[in-house]
Amino acid sequence: MHHCISVTKDKDDLITVWYSASYEKAPDSVIHLAKKRFDKWTEPVTVIKMPGFGIGNPVIWKSPDDELWLFFVVLTENDWQSALICRQKSKDHGENWSELEIISNMKGIMTKGRLLILRNGNYLLPVYDEKKWTSMILLSEDGNNWKLYGETTVTGLIQPVVIELDDGNLMMMSRSKMGKVYISYSFNGGLSWIASAQTDIPNPNSGIDVVKYKDMLVLAHNHTQTGRNRMDLLFSKDEGKTWSAPFCVKETDHGEYSYPWLLQDEKQLHLFFTDNRMNFIHSFFEDRDFEKR
Q: Which of 11, 49, 146, 195 is deepest in the core (most CB within 10 A)?
């Protein structure tokens, strides 16, 4: 199975990472990396392998000093509740990687969403507590010495994504068990958050992603309360207060589409998602595709 893709841009390349295993949490889990170069994808290579330990949920990010940072979780036992968040770095575009470092010693805290550098210069990594099912964040002043903040009081939420709004406030959106996407806000750079509230956006307990694209927010998710048989985009021109009707990217009568990841570049919006946990689909859109949204 292939699971939980993450994508970043490195010079003219797109770099993707994901984890593969015989089953979730399996001790044969590995993290693969592939690059899109000159409109062609390279063959995947294994970049993280820890025989006997389950690993998962990789998040790749390009730092301001041209390093690649790869966050992922390592299972110290055979369940997600034993996970520790780790990081490795590459100074040569993913060819070689530094020694593993543990950035959070609290077991059960897991990665999924992309890292942000806020206007105040702080680094923010969205995380969640697999034991409590609560959305949280890790904050750092310089990318080291991370501190945990922001439980949003509601349980049943995981895999948050965070956007910094035009006024500098932060918006967090989370996957939920309750059939809807949940939303929370921070007005002090992520140090505290208001209680997460239910939105009108359906969510079948599946992963989501949100990015800023031109003058709007774009949300990728499964627009249904049960099942993952479709992948959709929603658009907001008022920073998440209201959302458009769903734009269905792909739909199936069987199987699932899941774990979307959005990436924008100068010309296009890219959408990656998992197809039946066996393959990945890469769709891309230009402005004219969204003219009526």
A: 146
Residue 28 lies in a domain: yes
- Chain segment 192-217, per-residue pLDDT in tens: 999 999 999 999 999 999 999 988 99
Q: Is 218 domain-assigned?
A: no
* DSSP character at residue 208: -
**Residue 293 above 60 pLDDT?**
no
Q: How many domains does the chain have?
A: 1
Arithmetic mean of pLDDT over the chain: 94
CATH classification of the domain holding 35: 2.115.10.20
The answer to whether 169 and 163 are in contact (CB under 8 A) is no
Closest CA to 218 of 247, 255, 198: 247
Domain boundaries, position 13 = 1-106
Spatial separation of the C-alpha atoms in residues 90 and 66, rounded to whole Å = 9
pTM of the model: 0.96
278 occurs within a structural domain: no
Question: End-to-end distance of the chain based on CA atoms, in angstroms?
Answer: 35
For 149-184, what is each residue's pLDDT tens digit? Answer: 988 889 999 999 999 999 999 999 999 999 999 999
3-state class of 41 per DSSP? Answer: strand
227-236 own/partner pairs: CB under 8 Å, 24+ apart: 227/256, 228/204, 228/256, 228/257, 228/258, 229/253, 229/254, 229/255, 229/256, 229/257, 230/257, 231/257, 231/260, 231/271, 231/273, 231/281, 233/271, 234/201, 235/290, 235/293
Report H helices in the chain.
none
